[in-house]
Amino acid sequence: MRYLLGFMLLVLSVPAPLYAVQVDGLYTTTVAVNDQSQVARNGAIRVAIEKVVQKVSGRRSILQNPSLQAALSNVGSYVEQFQYKPVEDDEPGYWLIVSFQKAALDRVMQQFDVPVWDNNRPDVLVWFAVEGETEKHLVGAESENISALLKQVASDTGLAITLPLLDLEDQRAVSFNDIWAGFSDQILKASERYSAKQVMFGHLLQEGDDGWRLNWTLINANDQHAGFESSDTLESVLPMAFTEVAENLANVYAPHGAIKKNTLVITVTGVQSLSKFVEVMQYLSSLDMVKKLGWNQMLDDSVTFELSLTGSVSVLKGIIALNNILSPDVALNSTVTNVTDTQQYPAQAFKQRLYYRAN
């Protein structure tokens, strides 16, 4: 007992590992207000809660649900805290920063069958070719103005994005014309160095005083989606595209019907140290869809975990694939639980089992 207590204290004291794609601030947003009056604040908080629901679910379309809108109308019951920040450059007005209670908001969303998308999300590599009135260029991580706008729009829609470095390696791999014409094979080849699961590319065209047009494509190893947006300003055309991208990704990683509860057994090999055990356990418990996690067997370098999930096993597999913590053991996953398994693990005989190897 003394050993077990010391072991658990050690587990709890080890800092949690950092994972590749953790989207922070999903339950916080910022809205412009003219003053600090209660009337202005109440109106801004109503706007803020819709922005947060869109980020958390990945779907703006669910805001058209009248029952959900009615449930969200008492916005004060969901607010955790708010604060004001003066607008820069001595301009009039303020930024109202509002944070909402995660548990309360998740509960009401799930009540109306709105999936809550885990904050562990795919990184989207974005290649944009821009043709303005006087110049053509690719958008990179160091591009002025437009890169900051892209990152802000992505954050507002709950997406994690990476912009290319556009260094010599990128310049040798892909050109402006490749992006503009949408040569997907060339773009995907240039994207390999970034190890992104999702790649978005498109061309932005400024049409004089008539505004902007954006043709975009989202592509991965299995599928692709394309869209066309047009608007008066760049600040409005980009959110239209990123909202569509977020909806497409939410349909994969947080599909409707994801409220169903499941139990699952995962056997992880390659756990050769206490620190690796802690890393794997903390990683699995950090996933929002994992509601309960326990381990019941440790044999050599193999540990068996038992999970209670909200959502499907296929979605969990997709989320795990986003990070470099676990790799599926293809050989073992292709086998079927046999009589020996049933005898050795009778309580787990009828639960789905997956096999992974710790990286």
Give the structure's gist in a few sentences:
By secondary structure, the chain is of the alpha+beta class. It is 36% helix and 28% strand. Helix 5 crosses helix 9.
Account of the 3D structure:
It is a single chain. It is globular, with a radius of gyration of 23 Å. The chain has 3 domains: 28-111, no CATH class; 123-253, Ribosome hibernation promotion factor-like (Double Stranded RNA Binding Domain, 2-Layer Sandwich); 260-358. The chain has 13 helices and 14 strands. The strands form 3 sheets. Strands 4, 5, 6, 7, 8 and 9 form a 6-stranded mixed sheet that branches. A 5-stranded mixed sheet has the order 11-12-10-14-13. It has a 3-stranded antiparallel sheet with strand order 1-3-2. A hairpin with a 4-residue loop joins strand 8 (212-219) and strand 9. It has 359 residues and is α+β, with helices and mostly antiparallel strands.
Query: Could you give the distance between the termini?
Result: 31 Å
Q: How does CATH name the architecture of the largest domain?
A: 2-Layer Sandwich
Q: Would you identify the regions where 5 or more consecutive residues have pLDDT less than 50? A: 1-20, 336-350
Number of strands: 14
Structural class: alpha+beta
Helical content class: 25-40%
**What would you give as the CATH superfamily of the largest domain?**
Ribosome hibernation promotion factor-like
Q: Oligomeric state of the chains?
A: single chain
Taken together, the total number of domains comes to 3
Please give a handful of descriptors for the protein shown.
alpha+beta, disordered N terminus, 6-stranded mixed sheet, globular, 36% helix, 5-stranded mixed sheet, 3 domains, 359 residues, Double Stranded RNA Binding Domain, 14 strands
